[in-house]
Design a protein that fits this description.
binds ribulose-5-phosphate, about 25% strand, alpha/beta, Rossmann fold, about 230 residues
Length: about 230
C-alpha cells in the first residue's frame, strides 16, 4: 500500500536522525517533518545514550525536544552548531529551497547559517523543477508594513499578509508579520533574494540558497539521500 505524505515525511526524518553523532550541537528545525525527527533523535538519546545538545528554531520544537529528554540550549548559548536538520516547503534540483510555511524562517535561517552542515528532510512531493509554486514567505516588521506591502505589489510580486483562522495577521516569535508572495515561479532566486533583503522593514525571506548539501527524501521506495555536487 502506498505511503501517505506523513509516512513519507516520517521515513525521511528517521533516516536523517542517523546523521546525528555523539557530542554534536544539533539545530532542530520546525514543522511536521521535524516533529518526527525530534522523536527519532530522542529515541537515540534514550536508547543509545547519545549525548547531544539541541538548539530549537521555534518554541514548538523546543518544547517537544525538552519534553522528550533532549538537552537544549538557545542559539546564543552555543559557540556554533554542528548539524542542523530541518524541513522545507520546496527544493529544486540545485538544492535551493523555500522555507517558512510555519512562519519560522527567520529563526531557522539564523540557526542554519550558524551550522557547519545542513540537511533537509522532505517528502517527494516537495521536489520541484522551479521554485515558487509554494508562496514565498517574508517576515516583515509591523511598523510601515503596508509600505513594504505596496512596494512588493508594485513590483508585481503578488503579496498577501498571512492570516490565521480568525482572520488576524499571523505573528512570528519576534512579533512580526508574515507576507507571502504568490509568484507561481521564481526564475532568478538569487536576484530576488538580494532585492528582497535590501528592502527596509523586510526582516527575512524564505529563500534558502546555497545552504544545504544533503536532502533526505521520503519516497515510496524508501528514504533517499541526495547529495549536492557543489562544494
Ligand atoms: O519552513 C518551515 C517552517 O517555517 C518548515 O520546515 C516547512 O514549512 C516544512 O514543514 P512541514 O515539515 O510541516 O511540511
Amino acid at each position: 500500500m502506498a505511503m501517505d505524505q506523513n509516512e513519507l515525511k516520517k521515513t525521511a526524518a528517521i533516516k536523517a536522525a542517523e546523521f546525528v553523532e555523539d557530542g554534536m550541537i544539533v539545530g532542530l528545525g520546525t514543522g511536521s517533518t521535524v516533529t518526527f525527527l525530534v522523536e527519532a533523535i530522542a529515541k537515540r538519546v534514550q536508547e543509545e545514550g547519545l549525548h547531544i545538545t539541541g538548539v530549537a528554531t521555534s518554541k514548538r520544537t523546543g518544547k517537544q525536544a525538552k519534553s522528550l529528554g533532549i538537552p537544549m540550549k538557545t542559539i546564543d548559548e552555543v559557540p556554533h552548531v554542528d548539524l542542523t536538520i530541518d524541513g522545507a516547503d520546496e527544493v529544486d534540483k540545485n538544492f535551493q529551497g523555500i522555507k517558512g510555511g510555519g512562519a519560522a524562517h527567520a529563526f531557522e535561517k539564523v540557526v542554519a547559517t550558524s551550522s557547519t552542515k545542513n540537511i533537509w528532510i522532505v517528502d517527494e512531493t516537495k521536489l520541484v523543477d522551479t521554485l515558487g509554486k509554494f508562496p514565498l514567505p517574508l517576515e516583515v516588521i509591523p511598523y510601515g508594513s503596508t509600505k513594504v506591502f505596496d512596494r512588493l505589489q508594485n513590483e508585481g510580486l503578488n503579496p498577501k499578509f498571512r492570516l490565521n483562522d480568525d482572520g488576524e495577521r499571523v505573528k512570528t516569535h519576534s512579533d512580526n508579520y508574515v507576507i507571502d508572495l504568490y509568484m507561481g515561479h521564481i526564475d532568478h532566486p538569487h536576484l530576488l533574494a538580494n532585492w528582497l533583503i535590501s528592502q527596509v522593514g523586510l526582516l527575512e525571506h524564505g529563500l534558502f540558497l546555497d545552504i544545504v548539501n544533503t536532502v533526505v527524501v521520503g519516497t515510496q521506495d524508501g528514504p533517499k539521500i541526495l547529495e549536492a555536487k557543489r562544494a
